[in-house]
Write a structure and sequence with these properties.
This protein has 117 residues and is mainly alpha-helical. The protein has one domain (17-115). Helix content is 67%, strand content 0%.
Length: 117
């Protein structure tokens, strides 16, 4: 029978937690590149002379883009939360195993001391 403490467990990757702007841009760039942080300040210059009908269509496209962003953001955050939780549990388990080994060494030393009396 194998010792469960010695069973190899795949260490989950340490989660990278980006800034809010990085998350927004990462998700939005695939939905509507106009709306990422580096482009939003150029919209007036880029579309300033467009006809009102095209502007309305573009704004509707942006509205749909934000709805899609909200959906993908939730999915991203759910996955990130899961990854952080798995990583935390794994790290806590490593600490528990390490402490148990130390405790076992102390108990063994104590037992040996008692036996030598």
């Amino acid at each position: 029978m194998s010792d469960p403490q010695q069973t190899a467990v795949k260490t989950p990757a340490k989660p990278v937690i980006p800034s809010g702007q990085e998350i927004f841009d990462m998700i939005m760039k695939d939905i509507e590149p106009d709306l990422i942080s580096t482009n939003v300040n150029t919209l007036e210059e880029q579309y300033g002379t467009e006809p009102e009908e095209q502007k309305k269509a573009r704004l509707e496209r942006y509205k749909l883009a934000f709805a899609e962003y909200d959906k993908r953001y939730k999915e991203y955050m759910d996955k990130l939360t899961k990854d952080v939780s798995e990583y935390t549990k794994h790290e806590m388990k490593k600490i528990e195993v390490k402490n148990k080994a130390k405790e076992q060494d102390i108990l063994s030393d104590l037992e040996a001391s008692i036996m030598s009396l």
